[in-house]
Amino acid sequence: MPNVVYEHREAAKELSKLPKPVRQRFDIVRVNIEQDPRAPALGPKKETGWGKRTMLGYGFGYQRTTYRVAWEIDSKGDGFIGAYGAHEGFWGRVARRASR
């Protein structure tokens, strides 16, 4: 049974503003997270922690811009996507959302 993947409301807005090929790539990432929250099919990921919260991050390049997604795994094994977007200021946005 696939896991549930939730999105932060601001992450959903960010996703809608990205170019279509980037959104399609993030759809593939989301499917991988649903199948296994650690998403081993995506390869190496960055883990960043804020207190007791740890976010996994994955990035890829499109037209000379690096795009990233960050998510965490809750106690039930479901994924929570905290942010999507370009590299610029990305981890700052994730940190602000993780501190709430």
Describe it.
This protein has a single domain (5-98), classed as 2-Layer Sandwich (YaeB-like fold), CATH 3.30.2310.20. The protein contains 3 helices and 5 strands; from the N terminus they run βααββββα. The protein has 100 residues and is an alpha+beta fold.
What labels would you give this structure?
100 residues, alpha+beta, YaeB-like fold, five-stranded mixed beta sheet, 3 helices, 5 strands, 33% helix, globular
What does the secondary structure layout of this molecule look like, with pairings?
Blueprint: E1 5-7, H1 9-16, H2 20-35, E2 46-50, E3 53-62, E4 65-73, E5 79-86, H3 90-98
How many domain units? Answer: 1
The percentage of residues in β strands lies in 35-45%
- Order of strands in the sheet with most strands: 1-5-4-3-2
CATH homologous superfamily (4th level) name: RelE-like
**N- to C-terminal separation?**
30 Å
Overall residue-averaged pLDDT value? 84
| Helix/strand class | alpha+beta
- The number of E-state strands comes to 5
> Rounded to an integer, what's the Rg over CA atoms?
13 Å
Oligomer: single chain
According to CATH, what is the class?
Answer: Alpha Beta
Shape: globular
The major pleated sheet works out as: 5 strands, mixed
**At the third CATH level, what is the topology name?**
YaeB-like fold
What's the tally of helices? 3
- Helical content stands at 25-40%
Q: How do the helices and strands follow one another from N- to C-terminus?
A: EHHEEEEH
Uncertain segments of ≥5 residues (pLDDT<50)? none
Return the CATH architecture. Answer: 2-Layer Sandwich
